[in-house]
Amino acid sequence: MGLEFCRFLLSNKPGAVVIATCRKPDSSHPLADLNVRHPGRLTVLQLDVNREVDVKEAAETVQTEFGKVDLIINSSAMLHPSGKGETSLKEVSAQGIISTLTTNTVGPLMMAKYFAPLLQRGSGAFGQQPPEKNKQHSGILVNMSARVGSIGDNALGGWYSYRMSKAALNMATRNLSIELSRGRSKVVCVSLHPGTVNTDLSRPYHRNVPKDKLFSTEYSVQCLMSVIDHLNVDKTGRAYAWDGSEIPW
């Protein structure tokens, strides 16, 4: 998903400069290819969201080189260290929950901690800006969540680690939306659900997904960017699906 967001922004937002992060930039051949096709518009930084020092150093680099950020999309995630969700309580392990929470919840929160000052200096290039100055935003923070993280929408149970991590991420999003809406430099903070996307994370469960409900990364990102383009301060602190519908917490 993160790679597809990079592709979309570089291809559809003329003049946009994209900063991509990954754990091993030297071995990320798709990002290297994008760099060749869009010279001067893509910066790739090393960052493992499980290491706070990586997040801090990346933010310092962006501060030095760019001074601000208009949009952050936190898309790093894992289903479970085993690669599949727990279907019952007997499959739950403390280490599995800790690992999933560290990547899916703590990582995005650390990103917010160190990058929020850069978003507060943003130009408000994304989303919709109303005429009232007190309702205008400087930046947008997107946490890629999932419908299964909704407590109100949970009718099937299971997937303890993943559900818990996304529910906690949604709470972090809500908290951030309150704190970062104070003052003149407002940051819109939302959780987004991409649908069931054809990625490694969901691949073990594709056989249970109807063909018309399994999205390509291209389609999902196109839909999500449309949601982002229609965000404003009145929509902050909420969760939205790929089609723009609101998801209950």
TrEMBL record:
It comes from the Eukaryota. The lineage of its organism: Eukaryota, Metazoa, Chordata, Craniata, Vertebrata. InterPro entries: Fungal_SecMetab_SDRs (IPR051468), NAD(P)-bd_dom_sf (IPR036291), SDR_fam (IPR002347). Pfam families: adh_short (PF00106). GO terms for molecular function: oxidoreductase activity. SUPFAM superfamilies: NAD(P)-binding Rossmann-fold domains. GO terms for cellular component: cytoplasm. This is C-factor-like. Gene3D superfamilies: NAD(P)-binding Rossmann-like Domain. Belongs to the short-chain dehydrogenases/reductases (SDR) family.
